[in-house]
Amino acid sequence: xxAMNFAIQTIGVLYIWELIYRKExxxxxLVHHIARILLIQLITASFFDTKEIVLMRFAVLMVYHATTExxxxxxLLFFRLNLFERWQASWFFFAxxxxxxxxxxxTASTIAVYxxxxxxxxxxxxxxxxxxxxxxxxxxxxCLYGAQLYASSVLYHxxxxx
Length: 162
Known about the structure:
The chain is mostly helical. The chain has helices at 2-21, 27-50, 53-67, 70-81, 85-119, 127-161. The longest helix is centred in the middle third of the chain and has 35 residues, at 85-119.
């Protein structure tokens, strides 16, 4: 559990680092990063406070959003370095499609796990955390999903531009 927490926190630190080093950041990316950092930190804090394993499942699901962007990074690398000009549009369209499919599956899985594990069973969580998660979890996940869809639309527009 500590190794898993370390990996999840490392991804959170990467988001914080990106917020620090960027000179300009658009509102959708800012919302995405803040929602991601909040979810990672709050899930981890509530896990160590309650020892509810389902919270670590949520953290792992949140990390899938961050660790499934390889196709987007490859497309952006080709675009920025002006490599493989004939394939740039295809990479952007592939990255867009992959991003929408994976982010939709991860979001649906997260909401399903939330609905099954948190809503339908007797929870042993502290009432403060239980109240927090029942109010804030779904809006934070949907905010994150909206930012992911916006990022996918940017990939699509970059593909059209190529």
